[in-house]
Amino acid sequence: MKTVLVLNGPNLNLLGTREPQVYGSQTLADVQALCAATAAELGWALDFRQSNHEGDLVDWIHEAGRAQAAGTLVGVVFNAGAYTHTSIALHDAIKGAGVTVIELHISNVHAREAFRHHSYLAPAARAVMAGFGVSGYGLALRGLAQITA
Ligand code: CA2
Q1: What is the mean pLDDT of each successive set of 10 residues along the chain, which is 149 residues long?
Q2: How far lies 22's CA from each of 19, 36, 68, 109, 126, in Å?
Q3: What are 123-126's contacts with CB under 8 Å, separation 24+?
Q4: Is 105 a catalytic residue?
Q5: Which of 83, 105, 120, 137 is catalytic?
Q6: Which residue's CA is the closest to the ligand 1 atom numbered 2?
Q7: pTM (2 decimals)?
Q8: Count of beta carbons in the 10 Å neighbourhood of residue 76
């Protein structure tokens, strides 16, 4: 059975506690449960992680690249949070690891502040999804299944 990695960046541990008008009221534990159910439907094991530290995310992308090369990982659904808009290191990590990444955002970043309109990850990602709320995680997993089938 292959594994799918769902990575969450800074402040996503606060999901469901504040800004429900932007991010909804579901917690990160709820998102993990949604991902687990969807991954099971798709025949995958789920590896679900969150970190507030850029270096952790870089290390996990490298680890994912090795796992994908070994044939044990299907790819990564990645909500990099605000690092999306700042991190050349994460861009380089995705490119360097050669891993399949779906960039995901809960909110429609293009309908928000201008500083959220640019993504350093998008040019390195296989696909980008934004604005579907937390249900986007399930949709992104299904999209990953379609493009890797
Ligand atoms: O829409 C998304 O998923 C974002 O990646 C979320 C990031 C934001 O910086 C990106 O521009 C778009 C922020 C995640 C912080 O989430 C919170 C949730 C509840 C309360 C406070 C922060």
Answers
A1: 98 94 94 98 98 98 98 98 98 98 98 98 98 98 97
A2: 6, 24, 33, 10, 25
A3: 123/91, 124/91, 124/94, 124/95, 125/78, 125/94, 125/101, 126/75, 126/100, 126/101, 126/102
A4: yes
A5: 105
A6: 105
A7: 0.97
A8: 28
